[in-house]
UniProtKB/TrEMBL annotation:
Name of encoding gene: MSRB3
Protein name: Peptide-methionine (R)-S-oxide reductase
Annotated segments matching region Disordered: 170-200
Residues making up the signal peptide according to the UniProt record: 1-25
Cofactor(s) the protein requires to work: Zn(2+)
Length: 200
């Protein structure tokens, strides 16, 4: 009977309501975290900022997404339909993350990329929140929450980095020929793309 009831709840999208009902009746924090999906542990990142500084510098939406692991509503983000050529960077620390050459329309309502600019630019962490398993993506430099990684992307990688617009900034492609060749080689162009701009 319980399995059938759970199946019905999952199909109707009421799992979150059940989850809240169960977690509110559980008083022990560790047990409650086990039921709803434990958050990742604290990690030391190469670049750090005070929370006061981030609250002053970021919009409330950017802060919520990057620091509190929030998610913007589908089809509302600034970069969802963005088609300009350039580099998408972390809104918190400015680290280069994705090339516009790997952006595609997934129909999900969030900016989607099939590959990283550099493999080490994003850290992957298991995320068991909301009663499901996903892979969280965070900036490897500052730990800002970016979004999630799914295995339903296009070739050649088959990956879909589903990223919140609020976690990204954009640097337009430099018109210098050397920048385009180094971007195609894996992104060593971040220095030339940012010439004349203040880095955070």
């Amino acid at each position: 009977m319980t399995v059938c009831l759970m199946d019905v709840l999952l199909r109707r999208g009421l799992f979150v309501a059940l989850q809240l009902a169960v977690s509110s009746s559980v008083r022990h924090p560790a047990l409650r975290a086990g039921l709803i999906g434990a958050r990742r542990t604290k990690k030391t990142w190469p670049v750090s900022f005070s929370q006061d500084e981030l609250r002053k510098r970021l919009t409330p939406k950017q802060y919520h997404i990057t620091q509190e692991r929030g998610t913007e509503s589908a089809f509302t983000g600034e970069f969802t339909d963005h088609k300009d050529e350039g580099t998408y960077t972390c809104v918190v620390c400015g680290a280069p993350l994705f090339s516009s050459n790997t952006k595609f329309d997934s129909g999900s309502g969030w900016p989607s990329f099939f590959d990283l600019l550099k493999e080490e630019s994003v850290t992957l962490t298991d995320d068991f929140s909301y009663g499901m398993h996903r892979v969280e993506t965070t900036c490897s430099q500052c730990g800002a929450h970016l979004g999630h990684l799914f295995d339903d992307g296009p070739r050649p990688t088959g990956k879909r980095y589903c990223i919140n617009s609020g976690s990204l900034a954009f640097q337009p492609k430099d018109t210098a020929p050397s920048a385009s060749s180094s971007t195609a080689e894996g992104g060593a162009a971040s220095g030339s793309v940012t010439d004349g701009k203040t880095e955070l």
